[in-house]
Amino acid sequence: MFDITSIARPNILTLEPYRCARDDFQEGILLDANENTYGPSFTEFSVREKELELNRYPDPHQIPLKKRLCGFRNSEACNPQSIIKPEIGRDVKAELLTPANVCLSVGSDGGIDLLIRCFCKPGVEKVLVCPPTYPMYDTCCAVNDVEMMVEPLDLNTFQIKPDRIISRLKDDPSIKLVFITSPGNPTATMIKHDLIFQVIDAVEKMSWNGLIVVDEAYIDFCPIGSSMSVLVNKHKNLVVLQTFSKSFALAGIRLGVTYSTAEVSMLLNTTRDPYCLNKGASHAAMKATSKKALDLMKATCQKINEQRSLVSKAFSKIPGIGKNIGGEDANFILVQVLNKDGVPDNKMAYQLYWKLATERKVVVRYRGEELACTGCLRVTIGTPEENVKLLEDLESVLREGF
Ligand SMILES: Cc1ncc(COP(=O)(O)O)c(C=O)c1O
């Protein structure tokens, strides 16, 4: 069931969408927004800095960028090889994404925070997450005084358990958001679409009123048409989060994208800081979403995937390194570090992490404390040269012992 009035917080429902004089007039002598028309006091300007008119507020709506993002996701979904294609409705045009389905935020971390602020009453309503998962859900819940419930993944497959999630929602209507990370972090495992559909289909028939948020930060490392973003008009309880930080290689601009129904999207856009997307970020994102740049992005993801296979294979031959316990659906792998008895070991993993960073200047991430990740390091796939150095250093540090 989807009823926005019982999903959103009442104070959010009554917010008026942000409007400014610039929505109606963009040209002329602009004295409407208390900007400094003298311009910044830089002693020198690059051509680009001049063009950006940094003394002016950025466009709060970003329709050209939203159009590009929708065009990209729609075209991927309609590709003959697309995995999601059979799920798109018959009236393709009515179902696919438009800018009304998009909210841009300061990273997808900003999107996570926005969703919690819009849909969970502090101290009353809750969020459900499926560990091992991305720790920022926990932080955002804590900041917003929203209780976080957990329903672990199947710890052998790192897939969700739909029956368990559905029963948690039946038992506790105060859960308003479910975060499903696909591909997962630190699991690098894409959640099977049919498992997510089991949850969505059940929710559509239940009296539970909330949103199933699929966090697709790493989706471009998966086969074409893996994103569920194109289904938000068909399945109203579905929300999809994406980011420019991974496949687009633009972590520095802090840009996240939330796809949801026009109703949900309107609330998110009304709640967020209207000028949260700065001109530098908008400029870089427009460059990154031209047809040529998108083709290059996909080709780079493919290269990273090839490197990931090589690194994973090489890891399996290094004495002291155990299994890659995660999947192969993201730009990182999750590997075990073993003790002398061949058992995954947190102390060994932490020491290896520390030695690599301090003695070899190679920094990976220790993840041993995460559920079912004992002894694990999460290793991001780098360039071929970086990967060779990582493997050499890892092997020699392990050989030297510690
Ligand atoms: C699963 C997941 N979601 C969201 C994010 C946050 O991305 P952003 O850089 O857009 O805030 C990350 C970052 O590592 C992530 O792993």
TrEMBL record:
Keyword flag Amino-acid biosynthesis: yes
InterPro entries assigned to the protein according to its UniProt record, in alphabetical order: Aminotrans_II_pyridoxalP_BS, Aminotransferase_I/II_large, HisP_aminotrans, PyrdxlP-dep_Trfase, PyrdxlP-dep_Trfase_major, PyrdxlP-dep_Trfase_small
Catalytic activity: L-histidinol phosphate + 2-oxoglutarate = 3-(imidazol-4-yl)-2-oxopropyl phosphate + L-glutamate
Domain of life: Eukaryota
Entry's EC annotation: 2.6.1.9
Keywords carried by this UniProt record: Amino-acid biosynthesis, Aminotransferase, Histidine biosynthesis, Pyridoxal phosphate, Transferase
GO biological process, alphabetically ordered: L-histidine biosynthetic process
One Pfam family in the UniProt entry: Aminotran_1_2
PROSITE patterns: AA_TRANSFER_CLASS_2 (PS00599)
All residue ranges annotated as the Aminotransferase class I/classII large domain in the record: 28-392
Metabolic or biological pathway, per its Swiss-Prot or TrEMBL entry: Amino-acid biosynthesis; L-histidine biosynthesis; L-histidine from 5-phospho-alpha-D-ribose 1-diphosphate: step 7/9
Cofactor section: pyridoxal 5'-phosphate
Molecular function as annotated in GO: histidinol-phosphate transaminase activity; pyridoxal phosphate binding
Stated family: Belongs to the class-II pyridoxal-phosphate-dependent aminotransferase family.
Name of this protein: histidinol-phosphate transaminase
Organism name: Eeniella nana
Record lineage: Eukaryota, Fungi, Dikarya, Ascomycota, Saccharomycotina
